[in-house]
């Protein structure tokens, strides 16, 4: 299975296609009912896990970026509704309001940034040294200046003495950057913070291809 994952399911006798190649929006009517989702959940989960392999970039040993798209967010919404066993109108609209802003718009990438230290004592100590790190994550298209993340537009995720272990990032690209990527320009990523530096000089071909699907010329 490659990064052009396509999942199809029945909903109210209509065929809904989910693909990383289109800037589809998630609507109330495109979501599966609890009954329908239960039937396909394991298959859908396996396909999303496969798809996420190409949406995940590690920056060093302790930071992971998961680049969201319509498929990953649709899965998250369906899982939240499934876990709550709740499919009433209010619950659906709430989940849509929380998660759909994380879907890229055609000129950007949106990523969940996770800071991971398995030991809770070490994690607490490290988070205290990493205040502001969410603003120091960058992507770079060859021949252009780095783009630094716009972080946590939904809410503030730091307190006085530490940062959060999860942040939500948006990387807004210019039209020339998008054109260069479509023409084969190299993509790199990294983080440059006084307490943590790491970079990926050349993003993997499959990852780059998957991310390119989210950028419209």
Question: What would you note in describing this structure?
Answer:
It comes from Nitrosomonas cryotolerans ATCC 49181. The chain is of the alpha+beta class and 217 residues long. The chain has one domain. The chain is 33% helix and 28% strand. The chain has a five-stranded antiparallel sheet, with no helix packed on it. A four-stranded antiparallel sheet has the order 7-6-12-13. The chain has a two-stranded antiparallel ribbon with strand order 1-2. Strand 6 (137-141) and strand 7 (147-148) form a beta hairpin.
Q: Major sheet: size, sense and barrel closure?
A: 5 strands, antiparallel
Give the number of domains: 1
Radius of gyration from the alpha-carbon trace, in angstroms: 18 Å
Helix share bin: 25-40%
C-alpha termini separation: 26 Å
Gross geometry? globular
- Average pLDDT, to the nearest integer? 88
Which structural class do you get from the secondary structure elements? alpha+beta
Strand order of the biggest β-sheet: 3-4-5-11-8
The arrangement of helices and strands along the chain is EEHEEHHEHEEEEEEHEEH
Number of strands: 13
- Give the low-confidence spans: 1-22
- Total number of helices: 6
Protein name: DUF3501 family protein
Pfam family, one: DUF3501
InterPro entries: DUF3501
């Amino acid at each position: 299975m490659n990064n052009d994952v396509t999942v199809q399911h029945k909903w109210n006798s209509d065929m809904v296609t989910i693909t990383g190649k289109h800037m589809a929006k998630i609507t109330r009517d495109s979501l599966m009912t609890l009954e329908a989702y239960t039937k396909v959940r394991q298959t859908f989960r396996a396909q999303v896990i496969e798809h996420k392999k190409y949406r995940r970039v590690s920056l060093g040993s302790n930071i992971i970026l998961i680049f969201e798209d319509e498929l990953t967010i649709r899965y998250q919404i369906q899982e939240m509704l499934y876990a709550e066993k709740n499919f009433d109108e209010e619950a659906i609209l709430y989940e849509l309001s929380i998660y759909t802003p994380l879907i890229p718009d055609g000129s950007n990438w949106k990523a969940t940034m996770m800071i991971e230290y398995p030991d809770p004592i070490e994690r607490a100590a490290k988070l205290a040294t990493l205040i502001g790190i969410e603003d120091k994550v960058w992507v770079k298209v060859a021949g252009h200046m780095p783009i630094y993340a716009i972080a946590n537009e939904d809410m503030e995720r730091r307190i006085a003495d530490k940062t959060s272990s999860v942040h939500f990032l948006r990387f807004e690209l210019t039209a020339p950057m998008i054109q260069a990527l479509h023409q084969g320009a190299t993509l790199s990523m990294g983080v440059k913070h006084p307490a943590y530096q790491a970079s990926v000089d050349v993003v993997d071909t499959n990852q780059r291809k998957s991310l390119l699907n989210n950028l419209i010329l």
